[in-house]
Each structure stands twice: as C-alpha cells, then as structure tokens.
C-alpha cells in the first residue's frame, strides 16, 4: 500500500468523494420523489376533471379553509355551488372527493371499499383496529361475533340501567343549579353515557359518575379528539416521525396511555370476576351475553383466534364510540330544544302524558313518543354526531349521473353537508321536526346520522 493512500490528504480526498457521491444520490432521490409527486398530481387532476371545484393553491390546496372559524360555512357554499360532489385538495398532491348527495351516498355505501386510509392510521394508536378501523375478513368475523350483543332481548333490560344513569346525572344537576345559574352539560352527559356503556356492555358494578378516576378518561378522550383534528389539519404532522417528536405527539401518547389504563382495568376486573368458581358456568347458562363477555368467552373458552390486542381494540373502540358520539348527540339535542322552547314544551307534555311524574321509562315507552322522536331526529340532522366518513375506492365507480372515478381515489362522505343540502332538505338551517313526521317521504340515504353500510 502506498504512503499517499494512508496520508491525511488522501483520506480527505476519499471523504470528499463520498460526500459528492452522497450529494448526487440525494439529489437523484429528490428528483425521483418530485417526479412521483408530479405524476400523482397529474393522475388526480385527470381522475377528478369531471368534478369542478373552487380554485386551489398549488401547494396547500384548499387546506386553509380548515384554519379559520368559517369552515362549516365554506362547506355549505360548496354544496350550493357544486351539486352532488366537489374535490378537496390538500397539500399539493393529495385530494379527495367530498360527496353530499343521497344517490352518491347510496352507491358508495353499497360497496365494501376499505376504510384504512392515512386518516384512520392516526386513530390506531388509541383505539386499535377494532370494528371502526378494520376491514375485510377481520371486520366480518368480529362483526358476526359481536352481533348477538345487540339482540333486542339484550337491549330491552338496558333501558332500566340507562334510566338509572340519567337519574344520577339529574340529581347532580339539581344540586349544581342551586349554586350557579350556568351549567356546562357536555362533561356531565359524557360521564352519564360512559356510565351507561360501562354497565350495559361491560357488566360494571358501581357508578362512573361518582368515580373520580373516570373523569381522567373523559379528559383523555377529549384531548385525543382535539389532537386528532389538529393533526389532520397540519401538513407536517402527517409524517409519523415528525409528529412523534412534536409536543402534540407526546401529549397524544400520554392521553392514549390514560385511556388504555381505563380499558385495561375494565377487562382485568371482568376477567377476575369470571375466573371465580362457578362464574363461567353461570355465563354458559345465559341466553345472551353482553359485549365484553362475548369477547372474553371467545378468548377463554372457544379457542378463538382473538388476540389480547384484538380484544383491547374492540373494547377501546366501543368504549369511545359508545359514549362519545352519544354524548355529543344528546348535548346537541338539548341545545336544539333549549333554542326552541315551543318544541321543548311539546316534548315535555308528551313525555309527562306517558310517564306522569314518577314512572320510570321502559322499552315499550320508546315507541310511544312520536313528537319527541321527531325532535331527536331533526337535531341529529342539523348536528350529526358523525360529520363525515372516508372510503378509498378499491375498484372503479360510476355514479347515477354518469360521472366516474378510478380505483385509488379517496371519497369523503360528508354527512354534515348532506344534512344541510338544500336540494335534499328545503331550508336546511331551520330546525323543523315536522320533516320527520310519520308518513313523511325521504330518500333512503338522505338522513345518515350514524353513517351506513359497513362500519
């Protein structure tokens, strides 16, 4: 070996050469990525050319609409100006088609396109791949396994448990309104719906509403909701590594940990109860099992392929979906009735004529409140608990008006825009319970407060 090869100058020369090669290689990678992004954008432009939209910025698309307080008003302007559907561009090469027409909704929800898009992966650290996020055979198997938990014979006795939870909440309100003329109801309603889900679906003994530890779960869910929406609105936070290193990413992990501690405790307590002598035998004798018992029975007795991860994902999903969207819906119903005291009074009169001043509500009473039911439906039309859902086309689709899309396009089904579409609902911003009067005719997919199809 020559002396020059070992000299510092020779070493520096070789390092310089490596840096040059690395620079060229990095530049090539950037060019390839830029070409890939450009070609993908051109493909999207061609695929969506049949669907006009407002002008979009070449880099951030329409995403600035998310950054002001007029987001919902912008969505409604699109509904008026672009019938049936409108593309929404995000950060240059990302776009989805927002649909808000019942015929379009029917076509998409009648298919089995996957839900697993980039949006859903943001939720997976929290609720895992339970029924809400899973697809295909996994979704079908878990849905078939859990369907018996929602049998009428199971649901009927739950009404009494729900009434008990509501009474606890109302007793708290009686005390609180004597101390202050204002009451923030959403937190209380969330505790009440969580209490109900815990008793009905998870055989919980006790009251979540009086348990301080449950308040931390409600707070964690609220934080996770806010963090999820903030991440959707940020271009930088679409990257998992950047988000993980960010302050919001750390807060999200902390909130997930709190939420998981709650669900882990629920599973652990029920497992310990079932492992007591004779309890599994009693469980086998039950005609119908509740939600958590079905999962545990499948795991402990039937040799099911249900893993501990799958079990926790289903519990996390139902714990969240079972109480949070319900609490949101109930709170908006209260808001709508408080804003229209004349309708509130008619509901009160109907319920009093049915129950008097002291009779507890039963399953049979639910079908005897037509006007109250109309008001509930109208509130969910104006303020849908699930404002949108997303599908990624697994195969080409053709809509009733002849326009079509190729596989790979992301569809955002805007339930909020559908419910505020003036071509579907005349005077959509007006609270009018008569829209849902018995015998009124509606498109089968005009009213979708909790979505439709596989979910």
UniProtKB/TrEMBL annotation:
Give me the Gene Ontology terms describing cellular component. endoplasmic reticulum membrane
Q: Which Pfam families match?
A: p450
Which keywords does this chain's UniProt record carry?
Endoplasmic reticulum, Heme, Iron, Membrane, Metal-binding, Monooxygenase, NADP, Oxidoreductase, Transmembrane, Transmembrane helix
Q: Which residues cross the membrane?
A: 12-32
Q: Which InterPro entries match?
A: Cyt_P450, Cyt_P450_E_grp-I, Cyt_P450_sf, Cytochrome_P450_Monoox
Give any GO molecular function from the UniProt entry. oxidoreductase activity, acting on paired donors, with incorporation or reduction of molecular oxygen, reduced flavin or flavoprotein as one donor, and incorporation of one atom of oxygen
Q: Which GO terms describe its biological process?
A: lipid metabolic process
The source's superkingdom equals: Eukaryota
Q: Which Gene3D superfamilies match?
A: Cytochrome P450
Task: From the Swiss-Prot or TrEMBL record, state where the protein is found.
Answer: Endoplasmic reticulum membrane
Q: How does it sit in the membrane?
A: Multi-pass membrane protein
What is stated as this protein's family in its record?
A: Belongs to the cytochrome P450 family.
Matching PANTHER family, A to Z?
Answer: CYTOCHROME P450 4A11-RELATED, CYTOCHROME P450 FAMILY 4
Q: What is this protein called?
A: Taurochenodeoxycholic 6 alpha-hydroxylase
Give the species this sequence originates from.
Sus scrofa
């Amino acid at each position: 070996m020559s002396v020059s090869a070992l000299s510092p100058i020779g070493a520096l020369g070789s390092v310089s050469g490596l840096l040059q090669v690395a620079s060229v290689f990095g530049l090539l990678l950037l060019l390839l990525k830029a070409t890939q992004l450009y070609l993908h954008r051109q493909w999207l432009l061609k695929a969506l050319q049949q669907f006009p939209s407002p002008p979009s910025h070449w880099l951030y698309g329409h995403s600035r609409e998310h950054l002001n307080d007029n987001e919902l008003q912008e969505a409604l302007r699109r509904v008026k100006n672009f019938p049936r559907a409108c593309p929404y561009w995000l950060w240059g090469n990302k776009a989805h088609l927002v649909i808000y027409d019942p015929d379009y909704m029917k076509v998409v929800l009648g298919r089995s396109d996957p839900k697993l898009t980039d949006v859903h992966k943001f939720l997976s650290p929290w609720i895992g791949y339970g029924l809400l996020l899973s697809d295909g055979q996994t979704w079908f198997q878990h849905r078939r396994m859990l369907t018996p938990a929602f049998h009428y014979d199971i649901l009927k006795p739950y009404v009494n448990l729900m009434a008990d939870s509501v009474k606890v909440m109302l007793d708290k309100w009686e005390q609180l309104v004597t101390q202050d003329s204002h009451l923030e109801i959403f937190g209380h309603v969330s505790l009440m719906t969580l209490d109900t889900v815990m008793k009905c679906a998870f055989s919980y003994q006790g009251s979540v509403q009086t348990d301080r530890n449950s308040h931390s779960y409600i707070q964690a869910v609220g934080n996770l909701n806010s963090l999820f929406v903030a991440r959707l609105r940020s271009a930088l936070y679409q990257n998992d590594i950047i988000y993980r290193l960010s302050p919001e990413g750390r807060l999200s992990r902390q909130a997930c940990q709190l939420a998981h501690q709650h669900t882990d405790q629920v599973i652990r307590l029920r497992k310990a109860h079932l492992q007591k002598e004779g309890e599994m035998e009693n469980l086998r004798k039950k005609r119908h099992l509740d939600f958590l018992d079905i999962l545990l029975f499948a795991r402990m007795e039937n040799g099911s392929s249900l893993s501990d991860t799958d079990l926790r994902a289903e519990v996390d999903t139902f714990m969240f979906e079972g109480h949070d969207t319900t609490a949101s819906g109930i709170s908006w119903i209260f808001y709508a009735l408080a804003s229209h005291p004349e309708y509130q009074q008619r509901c009160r009169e109907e319920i009093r004529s049915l129950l008097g001043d002291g009779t507890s509500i039963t399953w049979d009473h639910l079908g005897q409140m037509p006007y109250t039911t109309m008001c509930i439906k109208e509130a969910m039309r104006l303020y849908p608990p699930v404002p949108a859902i997303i599908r990624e086309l697994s195969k080409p689709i053709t809509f009733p008006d002849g326009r079509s899309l190729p596989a790979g396009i992301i569809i955002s089904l805007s339930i909020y825009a559908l419910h505020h579409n003036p071509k579907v609902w005349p005077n959509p911003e007006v609270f009018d319970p008569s829209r849902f009067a018995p015998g009124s005719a509606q498109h089968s997919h005009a009213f979708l407060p909790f979505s439709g199809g596989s979910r």
